[in-house]
Automatic annotation (TrEMBL), chain A:
The keyword Protein biosynthesis does not apply. Belongs to the ABC transporter superfamily. It comes from Ancylobacter tetraedralis. PROSITE patterns: ABC_TRANSPORTER_2. It is a peripheral membrane protein. Residues 4-241 form the ABC transporter domain. GO terms for cellular component: ATP-binding cassette (ABC) transporter complex, substrate-binding subunit-containing. CDD domains: ABC_Carb_Solutes_like. Keywords: ATP-binding, Cell membrane, Membrane, Nucleotide-binding, Transport. One of its GO terms (molecular function) is ATP hydrolysis activity. Its main location: membrane. This is Glycerol transport system ATP-binding protein.
TrEMBL record, chain B:
InterPro entries: MetI-like, MetI-like_sf, Sugar_ABC_transporter. It holds the Pfam family BPD_transp_1. It comes from the Bacteria. The keyword Membrane applies. Belongs to the binding-protein-dependent transport system permease family. This is Glycerol transport system permease protein. The lineage of its organism: Bacteria, Pseudomonadati, Pseudomonadota, Alphaproteobacteria, Hyphomicrobiales. The chain crosses the membrane at residues 12-36, 75-96, 103-128, 156-180, 213-230, 264-283. It is found in: Cell membrane. Residues 71-282 form the ABC transmembrane type-1 domain. One of its GO terms (biological process) is transmembrane transport. GO terms for cellular component: plasma membrane.
Amino acid sequence: MASITLDHLAHAYRPDPRGPQDYQLKEINHVWRQGGAYALLGPSGCGKTTLLNIISGLVTPTTGRILFDGRDVTHLPTEARNIAQVFQFPVVYDTMTVRENLAFPLKNRHVPRADIVRRVEEIASRLDLSAVLDRKAQNLTADAKQKISLGRGLVRSDVAAILFDEPLTVIDPHLKWQLRSSLKELHRALDLTMIYVTHDQTEALTFADTVVVMHDGSVVQTGSPEELFLRPAHTFVGHFIGSPGMNVLPAEVRGRTAYIEGIAIALPSAYPALPPGARIELGVRPEFAELTRAGTGVPVKVRRIDDLGRTRIARIEIAGHAAAATVPEGLSIEGDAAGLKLEPGQIHIYADGARVAGEGGA
Amino acid sequence: MEKPINNRAWLLVAPVFLIVAFSAIVPIMTVVNYSVQDTFGNNQFFWNGLGWFQELLDPSTELGGRFFAALWRNLAFSAIILAIEVPLGILVALSMPREGWKVAATLVVMALPLLIPWNVVGTIWQVFARADIGLLGYGLNWLGIDYNYTGDTLSAWITIVVMDVWHWTSLVALLCYAGLKSIPDAYYQAARIDGASRWAIFTTIQLPKMKRVLLIAVLLRFMDSFMIYTEPFVLTGGGPGNATTFLSIDLVKLALGQFDLGKAAAMSLVYNLIVLAVCWVFYTVMTHAGQDYDGNRRPQEETPA
Ligand SMILES: Nc1ncnc2c1ncn2[C@@H]1O[C@H](COP(=O)(O)OP(=O)(O)OP(=O)(O)O)[C@@H](O)[C@H]1O
Ligand SMILES: [Mg+2]
């Protein structure tokens, strides 16, 4: 058990990286707290697996250090690192029974027999594998095989962290929920650091207490699910989290007013520190943008209204830019003209994609 | 569901039937015909029933004696070369490079012996191993080792075995290499996470994943060595004495040397049956191993103890 520190970590797969474009992982500084449940969230190809493999030692970073509880392990091999990792596709040792599979990581580390038996039984019962313990792993379903892979990650009680690399991709949806809650339970019971890679936001938000969002090789925001929702630090986070994602509209800011193609929107605070020449955008989540009768608020054009069951989402245009907004109950829109009311505290201003804090807020 | 029946469908099968008839059935039937007859020359044949077969399978007769001697020689030869080529092939495959230009270079070098015609292989080794002028033979004798494959049984056997190993280990190695390449990286990564030793990786990941190609390699090498003719014929001509007279060489001696068509026909039929039987056993084992592999969805009745 340990906290894991990434210190100026960067990685390029090619041996002679010239510029930043050659780096699959741009410089990262981050501390994974002991006992935390983390989700590493990001689109395909953003470097999530690379980061996990660096932490577990399967890949050695180009620059920077990894510290386990302050001890530099950057050049230690995987075997010497006390880390468990579960991969996207099930890996089972075909010739062994399920029991032998689960015992394998412990046996290799010369754990006493009695402890092995106890741990294997415990993990098997948590993962619902007890009934098949003595079957050959080869003949089981993909679900069961992935549970074995998970089990091999979980049996070791001494690990600094368990890394899950999209472990539920091959699992049936209904079993997914079940396994995810088993993992959460295990996390509480074992007080382990868990890092869970996914590109599915629901999965990340339900599993983790801290979500690390990656984009294009960098960490763009680290925070609780609530923070990611209420204060996206980057327009990418705004887009990626929430469905539909945050509305991001090109804007001009003067004093406490933003102008979208000349349409004025009142801001709760001033932004005197906006870097000159930067691309300025206004971001507001559909949840905080409410459709109103035409003639009130910001004039918008309604394209269509999606009924999502509990809520209705309107697809609208603000001065030609596509956006989404909530339709309050009881409001009926005639024609395509409507108004839009924005919740002042939930409007964010971005300069070149990064959130800028306002000054003198109300 | 009702199957449509149309007798014209036979027309579609007819060409295949004709080809098989002329390429296999007719020649085999002539052999069967010879195997049940005896001749005193002059193209006069007499009915001999199963006489040749009885004699062939009775080791106390002259025919049976030489048949079983050749059969044991053959089996011993196959066993020896399998015992060497399979482990050696695995070892070579494990040490072959995985990526980069070296892969292509290794593959070309490995494929070279496989591309040489069999009688050329025999000739190469015949010259190479000669005690008077061959580099190998002369060198060994110069070192004080008494080596002469034309006079000494052990030397002859060692030469033939080494020749076969030189010729065919590449095949086993290439097959194993293909098997190894098909193992996803995740297996090796998982093994490292699990702290598996090099030996454990071999026995728990590599060997099981190579099982199928290994079966194919063993089958190919067994059949080929069991039917070996050209190389020993060129190298030793079956000698010294009968020390390297394998079944195929004996068969040719019997049929073309002595012109004992009846005996030779009976012998080739039995030879053929042995080959077929072994093939069938391998085929059964292999399809079994295959089912185990895609056994994901196959419900498994048997519960291991
Ligand atoms: N072994 C490798 N050699 C070279 N480039 C690689 C290698 N592995 C990954 N990459 C590249 O590094 C980038 C990050 O890959 P990585 O596998 O870490 O992404 P990921 O976030 O895990 O994506 P996914 O969600 O698809 O698993 C990708 O552009 C990929 O093409
Ligand atoms: Mg990945």
